Amino acid sequence: MKEETKILVEKGEMLPLMEEFYTIQGEGFHKGTAAYFIRVGGCDVGCHWCDVKESWNAELHPPTAIENIVENAAKHSKTIVITGGEPLTWDMGPLTKMLKDRGMQIHIETSGAYKLTGIWDWVCLSPKKMKLPTEEVYRKADELKVIVFNNDDFRFAEEQAAKVNEECILYLQPEWSKREKMSALIVDYVMQNPKWKVSLQTHKYLNIP
After folding, report:
1. Is 49 annotated as a binding residue?
2. Is 77 marked as a binding-site residue?
3. Is the peptide bond before 85 cis (omega within 30 degrees of 0)?
4. Residues that bind substrate, according to the entry (predicted)?
5. Residue 51 annotated in ligand binding
């Protein structure tokens, strides 16, 4: 990467863009909503069950000027979801300001492992055991989405729920490869602990990208 480009990436004026696409939000509170997804490369949290491992290495994804990203987004939707990878690896301030200036509603999907930068209308926090969220992200999370891969994840979910604000909506979501077994366990758990809600990856059931 050229030194000039590297500096722009560090400032958040260019980002390693993996993909961008218009689709239906499949998970959590906004499921069923048409949204434009911006997937940023780069993540060192390292979930072994991650379904987008190709996003981990930022160097595989071309540094892209945020002006171009915003122009593409504006053609499709007023609801923007920034995901990864781990988007907070980078400074989200410049991109989100530019999107806000265009009147966008901006959501982030994050593990919360890094400093919360940017202007957000909705923060979906999906914490991971390997690298826990910062205190600021816990405070500002609008929804907590814990992926359930094994039984210990219920314990982890309760630990995380104790750290978020009182208004935060709590979701348990089965990891896709374990969805049949874990969905049944989650249903039982939510019925016994109704502060939680069930989240499913509905876009996968509908074969939506």
Report:
1. yes
2. no
3. yes
4. 24-26, 39, 83, 209
5. yes
DSSP calls for 95-142: HHHHHHHTT-EEEEEE---S---S--SEEEE--BTTBPPPHHHHHH-S
Q: Is 153 annotated as a binding residue?
A: no
CATH number of domain containing 113: 3.20.20.70
The count of domains in the chain is 1
Task: Tell me if 24 is assigned to a ligand binding site.
Answer: yes
Instruction: State which residues form the domain around 78.
Output: 3-205
79 is in an annotated binding site: no
**Is 39 marked as binding a ligand?**
yes
pLDDT tens for each residue of 154-204: 999 999 999 999 999 999 999 988 888 999 999 999 999 999 999 998 888
Task: Give mean pLDDT, residues 119-145.
Answer: 97
